[in-house]
Amino acid sequence: AAATELGPGAGVAIHDVVDTRHAPALAEEVRERFGTVTILVNNAGNHFKKSIEETEEDEFRNLLDTHVTGAYALTRAFVPGMAEAERGHVLFTASMASFMGLPKVFAYTTAKAAYLGMVRSLAVDLSPKGIRVNGIAPGFIETEISRKAFEGDPQRKEKVLGRTPMRIFGKPEDIGWAAVYLSSPAARFITGVVLPVDGGMLVGF
């Protein structure tokens, strides 16, 4: 439905990021249907709240496979087409957890922190091929799920806003516009950075 709303140039291809064997086939399918892909957004993710003692190994591996190994496989599959076109942008959706220690999300934090290294290393390796690599790190964003969560926990809501100098929650379009900017010609001289979109949370006290 969302693809239909975006118009005739949009389409859908189904892919399980954990099944990395099929990443090359996805890249080929998308190329045949839409032409060379010059923007890749690694946005797939999952999440759970558990201490390390409570986390089973298969849960930990699945989370890393979804965030890290899945992003590796897709980037590896799409980079050759970008290199051939001599232009491209790979964008990783990181998190405040990439920079901060959050309670009971050590697995998620581990995965998101890995994006910092991936962005920096890939930016160095791929720049000579005309490919930029960046990330965005969303803060607390107002969604239907977050609204319901904070309605039942006003103390947590105040704690979050207290850590956010702008004293507001972000909106989904704030993340979208950051992604558009970093993927546009306006950011042609920017690579290797992870941009916080967080109302100042990262620098707040």
Write the layout of secondary structure elements.
Blueprint: H1 2-6, H2 23-34, E1 39-42, H3 57-85, E2 88-93, H4 106-126, E3 131-138, H5 144-151, H6 154-162, H7 172-183, E4 194-197
Parallel strand pairs: 1-2, 2-3, 3-4
Helix pairs in contact: 2-3, 3-4
What does this entry look like structurally?
There is one protein chain. The chain has 205 residues and is of the alpha/beta class. The protein has helices spanning 2-6, 23-34, 57-85, 106-126, 144-151, 154-162, 172-183; strands spanning 39-42, 88-93, 131-138, 194-197. The protein has a four-stranded parallel β-sheet with strand order 1-2-3-4, with helices on both faces. Strand 1 (39-42), helix 3 and strand 2 form a beta-alpha-beta unit. Helix 2 packs parallel to helix 3. It is globular, with a radius of gyration of 18 Å. The model has no long low-confidence stretch (mean pLDDT 94).
Q: Could you please say which CATH topology applies here? A: Rossmann fold
CATH superfamily, by name, is: NAD(P)-binding Rossmann-like Domain
Q: Estimate the strand proportion.
A: 5-15%
The main sheet orders its strands as 1-2-3-4
H/E series? HHEHEHEHHHE
Number of helices: 7
Largest sheet: 4 strands, parallel
First CA to last CA: what distance?
42 Å
Number of strands: 4
Question: What is the CATH-assigned architecture?
Answer: 3-Layer(aba) Sandwich
Instruction: Tell me the name of the CATH class.
Output: Alpha Beta
How many domains, in number, for the residues?
1
* Low-confidence parts: none
> Oligomeric form of this entry?
single chain
